[in-house]
Design brief:
Two copies of one chain form a homodimer. By secondary structure, the first copy, chain A, is of the alpha/beta class. Chain A has ten helices and eight strands. Chain A has an eight-stranded mixed β-sheet. In chain A, helix 1 links the parallel strand 1 and strand 2. In chain A, helix 9 runs antiparallel to helix 10. The radius of gyration of chain A is 22 Å and the shape is elongated. Chains A and B meet through helix 5, helix 6, helix 7, helix 8 and helix 9 of A and helix 5, helix 6, helix 7, helix 8 and helix 9 of B.
């Protein structure tokens, strides 16, 4: 049974996940990060020991949560002598579980699908955690752990997690980038980005009730070419390329 | 003082605006649309007369709201003998007010910035109406009218309204299109689009507290090139082009 946790890595996911774990009955024993300031940031936030010295990592925790950038997972876990009973998971959307096999026989993935920034609180009741494990026993252990962090636990294999993450990049990361571009346009005109918030809210709200296809509005879907041209004329080169491409895509054209 | 309203055009904006007006103290006298079904749809919704015969348009209303696709505004208003006291407005984001000058001396724009679909209710308390008028007296009349439809009335000239609308296309229409692309990816994997809703909600929620630049997360801003490549490999041609372009744009590269 999982009772104690060590974090390997102290980025945005670890920062929020450690707090959620700390609010439950589990104990975070230690936070390790190569970067002293990151280790300290998470450690102090949840009032637990932290280190940037790999040799000091506690060896007999029940669960090690590796939450580093995807390319650094193997490196971060190398040269730690885990006790054979420990479970090791990573939290990445697009990394196959099997890269952990070299470190333990009980491995898994605990992927909380959300957009995590340090200075924005996250409600773990409103996200899903996608779980995968190398065997049934490990899955049960991870499930019993995760269900106390979030009420929404779903089983998903590595292949579908990659697809889910790819979809999430469109729905979240790219969407936020469009917000940035719209904020640029507003600023150029001396308008406040906040003026767009009711529209942004309703755009998001709509797809709770309609499919995105049904919800589509605007000049591109109406094929209002005169307006499209007016907008293009008012944009800088980068925004012009994006406006043109997304308008074509809305019109189901081949890009 | 505006008391009576005639709608010229019965699209999505008219459909929702007519209902909002109908809930206030004003009287919608008539709905005209070239398309019988559209006129009927709005007319029956608010229980008022409707016609698709231009000759039958009531001539002495206080306010004519022209809400047709942008290219059709002039055509829709031509050959109607408005009485000289009538005010004529359009509801378009990107059409200059001055195209109405040929029809009356009291003209204006009443642009409710929102994404309107027939089968999704709209709360007019949660949007802003952007107003412009050809003279102060007309502005006052329109303001006193609009403030009973929505508590958020803002004055904006045609030039800035065009910029606002352009920004809105990015923040709403293009964002919704990204939802559609993410829905495609989910469907290909047998996953439900609704799984993405907590992420979509938080992405939208975040920019109430952080600027879009501060809120940006994901592989592109982390320059996680291996993950970007994995995602590109899993996408069809159109989505590959969009993924690649938006990732570069997030990284502030020239497109």
């Amino acid at each position: 049974m999982i009772k104690t946790v060590v974090f390997i890595g102290a980025g945005n996911v670890a920062y929020h996940l450690a707090q959620a774990i700390n609010r439950s009955d589990f104990e975070v024993l230690q936070v390790f990060s190569r970067t002293h300031l990151s280790a300290k940031g998470v450690g102090e936030k949840i009032n637990c020991p932290y280190t940037n010295n790999k040799n000091e990592i506690i060896k007999n925790a029940d669960l090690y949560i590796c939450s580093v950038s995807d390319d650094n997972i193997i490196d971060a876990l190398s040269d730690i002598n885990f006790t054979p009973n420990s479970i090791i998971v990573h939290t990445a959307g697009s990394v196959n579980m099997n890269i952990l096999n070299q470190f333990s026989e009980q491995v898994g993935v605990l992927y909380p699908m959300q957009t995590f920034s340090k200075n924005k609180e996250i409600d773990f009741n409103k996200l899903s955690i996608y779980l995968e494990a190398s065997n049934d026993e490990t899955y049960k252990e991870l499930y019993n752990f995760a269900i106390q962090i979030s009420p929404n636990i779903k089983q998903l294999n590595s292949e579908n997690r990659l697809k889910l993450h790819t979809a999430a990049v469109f729905a979240c990361n790219f969407t936020n980038h469009l917000y940035r571009l719209s904020a640029d346009i507003m600023q150029e005109s001396g308008l406040e980005f906040s003026e767009l918030l009711p529209l942004i809210d309703e755009t998001c709200n709509k797809v709770h009730y309609l499919s995105p296809s049904e919800a589509q509005t605007g000049p591109a879907i109406r094929r209002d070419e005169k307006i499209i041209q007016k907008h293009l004329n008012s944009l800088d080169e980068n925004k012009k390329v994006i406006y043109s491409l997304l308008s074509k895509s809305i019109q189901y054209e081949k890009l």
